[in-house]
Amino acid sequence: MAVREGIFPTQENRDPRKGLLLMLVGIGLFSILNGVVKAQMEVFPPNQVILFRNAFALVPLWFMLLPLGGLAALRSARIKEHVVLSVLFTGTLLCIFFAYSIMPLVDVTAISFTQPLLVSVFAFALGLEKTTRLQWLAVGIGLGGVLVMVQPTGGGPVIGGLIALVGSAMGAASMLIQRRLSTSDSTQSIAFYTLGISALLMVPLMFYSYVTPTPWQLAGLIGMGVASGLCQYVIVRAFYHATASEIAPMTYTKIIWAVIIGYLWFSEVPTLPVMLGSIAVMGATYLAFRSAAAARMTI
Predict the structure, then answer these.
(1) Which pLDDT tens digit goes with each residue over 70-88?
(2) Fewer Cβ neighbours under 10 Å: the N or C end of the chain?
(3) Is residue 44 within 8 Å of 253, Cβ to Cβ?
(4) CA distance linking residue 124 with residue 244, whole number of Å
């Protein structure tokens, strides 16, 4: 069967720099949604937020599947991997969302920055990807910038930090599985399976914890889900073009978005350490682009 551009990736049509750009956009959109999620967590339990978020995210993804044949585009010989990815994805959301409910946003964000390091470590340890020195340098500089910026407040119980760390580990593993699936399945089908199975996993929990939303709250939950679907597509698409190790440093830009959202939403003024750390993060991003460009030239 012939390989079709835009559905099944090949060495010829991948563009690492485009993958990095897509990840930057996706991270920015998801960062805004994280603020929305934290606000929702003040009213609804984590499982209910996840159900609405993932179920209604399927709406925009379904319209993206229609040009590819609708249900026919969901055919896959790797269903078990989709299920594993969905379980890891759901576990990540449960851990992070729960941490949001009991810890300051900056603390959870700080802990989540262990994920890029775990991605590179997992990929290297499992022999799945080769990690260049420049990529290791980018990850190291990015992590250093994050540590300078965040300076966790220490608020919230220790258990919250441990749960957030577990969520980061599962998130790193899910990133690697997404990359493997992208070699045979379409971007749209990966996102559809992940969100759909994740939503189904939350249904049984609704019998134990469900808060009836007001009409406005219901509209907010649905809107959050639709927006998440669009963001999920962008993130998965990034893995079409670039490897997990190349993309990993891009996640550090979440802290820049956290600064912007904190200032506009919570009137938090960035400190000198935040400004210095931001420069380090942007430097790591530049190194990642250089690495991706070099990889492209060798193809």
Answers:
(1) 777 788 878 889 999 999 9
(2) N
(3) no
(4) 11
